[in-house]
Design goal:
The structure is a single chain. The chain is α/β, with parallel strands linked by helices and 470 residues long. It folds into 2 domains: 4-235 and 439-460, 3-Layer(aba) Sandwich (Aldehyde Dehydrogenase, Chain A, domain 1), CATH 3.40.605.10; 239-421, Aldehyde Dehydrogenase, Chain A, domain 2 (3-Layer(aba) Sandwich). It has 16 helices and 19 strands. It has helices at 22-39, 44-60, 62-73, 77-101, 109-114, 141-152, 166-178, 196-201, 214-227, 249-261, 278-293, 313-328, 362-365, 381-388, 404-413, 446-452; strands at 4-7, 12-16, 119-126, 129-133, 156-160, 186-188, 205-211, 230-234, 239-243, 271-277, 332-335, 352-355, 372-378, 393-394, 398-400, 420-421, 436-437, 440-441, 454-461. Strand 7, helix 9 and strand 8 (230-234) form a beta-alpha-beta unit.
Length: 470
């Protein structure tokens, strides 16, 4: 795949970029390692000041970088602006909270004595250079939710971004440096996916994080396992959206539309499989289909556009194949199911709802990465949970019920990294994010995320440590 900005709303190639050569990659690795040796000794208050300055710069450039993201991957401009604001919020949150999240941990005096120590505690130290392999769908947020905690912990980062968002990638590589971080603290590598393996095997790389496809995650996990390096993987998702009789059906249906088509439907945590109790199925389906049908599809730069194009022609083709397979196997198309007549150019696809889904259909097992929803009817909570778990993925889940015993059971039994009741899944700096099964492992955000790339170090003293000389 060439490294290029191709406007998905028109199919026009706007700008191409040359991949870094071996010498340029080596220079960035050398710089990252040298920077880490010094940067890890800086105090967290200084790092927090730098991160706040980064947030200030990003906030002031919100409109410009939002337009760049929309041009490169097609999300509506309003959504791009919201993504920038979310990144600013996360930077400020980590600047404010990293000190407490990484504070030394002290066991009880009784446990210290029982260990035979005069003093003992746990401290968090940075690992080193972390390689971040990031996707195009949230080209700013996915990177910042790694970079903010990693830099606050004292690590340095190398970014291998998706090849269709090179201008956003370059912007990120410059942003942290412009805010005052040392030049080697966060660098962008304009490289193809074929160059990742050799970089990951380099001994100067301490760990890796990847958000992306399952094949990409398997490749990074295999190499990291071979070289015994820490990894965090956030891969695909096919999140269930369970609606039970006690739900506010009007609100559940309205939220379902947003939950499915956010980011043009190209989100790992978008609700994709809508599992509805028979008692409220007809009401929910009518409202949901009406809401999906009413969405405005068109130019993502235009105010009022709800759904822009898919990010690539291949992405649309993949989505079309899933829908056509379902139709051939007997699925009913309640709305959409085709390319819109207008705009004529670009990689657009109508918001779609499919019903009558069976296990024979690919879309029952595979992730639909676009504005296509599958609708299921169930008789009870037992069926709902079984269907929700009938997927290789386990990123998050949504459940609409006000009955406490049903909520408690869903928390116990749903195989997912999150259970969101009476609302849609969303990430927040204070809450850990990640999945189970083939959705990956490890966590981003919150204290769990900042500690993923730390050396959790036990400090033990056989005699009391002496005070520093006056």
């Amino acid at each position: 795949m060439p490294i290029a900005t191709v406007n998905p709303a028109t199919g026009e190639t706007l700008k191409t970029f040359d991949a870094l050569d071996a010498a340029q990659i080596e220079e960035r690795l050398r710089r990252a390692e040298e920077t880490f040796r010094e940067y890890r000794t800086t105090d967290r208050a200084h790092r927090a000041d730098l991160l706040r300055r980064t947030a200030y710069l990003l906030e002031g450039e919100q409109d410009d970088i939002a337009r760049t993201m929309t041009t490169e991957m097609g999300k509506p401009l309003a959504a791009a602006r919201a993504e920038v604001a979310k990144c600013v919020k996360a930077m400020r949150w980590y600047a404010d909270h990293a000190e407490e999240l990484l504070a030394d941990e002290h066991p009880s005096a009784a446990d210290v004595e029982d260990s035979g120590a005069a003093a003992a505690w746990v401290t968090y130290r940075p690992l080193g250079v972390v390689l971040a392999v990031m996707p195009w769908n949230f080209p700013l947020w996915q990177v910042v939710r790694f970079a903010a905690p990693a830099l606050m912990a004292g690590n340095v980062g190398l970014l291998k971004h998706a090849s269709n968002v090179p201008q956003t990638a370059l912007y990120l590589g410059q942003l942290f440096h412009r805010a005052g971080f040392p030049e080697g603290c966060f660098q962008t590598l304009l490289i193809g996916s074929g160059a990742v393996d050799a970089i990951l095997r380099d001994p100067r790389i301490a760990a890796a994080t990847l958000t992306g496809s399952e094949p990409a995650g398997r490749a990074v996990a295999a190499t990291s396992g071979d070289t015994v390096k820490k990894t965090v993987l956030e891969l695909g998702g096919s999140d269930p959206y369970v609606v039970l009789p006690s739900a506010d059906i009007g609100k559940a249906a309205r939220t379902a539309v947003t939950a499915r088509v956010q980011n043009n439907g190209q989100s790992c945590i978008a609700a994709k499989r809508f599992i509805v109790h028979n008692d409220v199925y007809d009401d929910f389906a009518a409202r949901f289909v009406a809401g999906m049908s009413a969405l405005s599809v068109g130019d993502p730069m235009a105010e009022g556009t709800d759904v822009g194009p898919l990010s690539s022609e291949q992405g649309r083709s993949d989505l079309e194949e899933l829908v056509e397979d379902a139709k051939k196997q007997g699925a009913a198309v309640l709305c959409g199911g085709r390319r819109p007549g207008k705009p004529a150019a670009g990689w657009f696809y109508e918001p779609t709802v499919l019903a009558g889904i069976s296990e024979a259909m690919r879309i029952h097992h595979e992730e639909a990465f676009g504005p296509v929803a599958t609708l299921y009817r169930v008789a009870n909570l037992d069926e709902a949970i079984a269907l929700a778990n009938d997927t290789p993925f386990g990123l998050s889940s949504n459940v609409w019920t006000t009955v406490r015993r049903q909520q408690e059971r869903c928390v116990r039994e749903l195989e997912a990294g999150g259970v969101f009741f009476n609302g849609m899944t969303a990430s927040h700096p204070a809450l850990p994010f990640g999945g189970v099964k083939r959705s990956g492992y490890g966590r981003e955000l919150a204290g769990h995320g900042i500690r993923e790339f730390c050396n959790i170090t036990t400090v033990w003293h056989g005699v009391p440590p002496e005070a520093d000389p006056a």
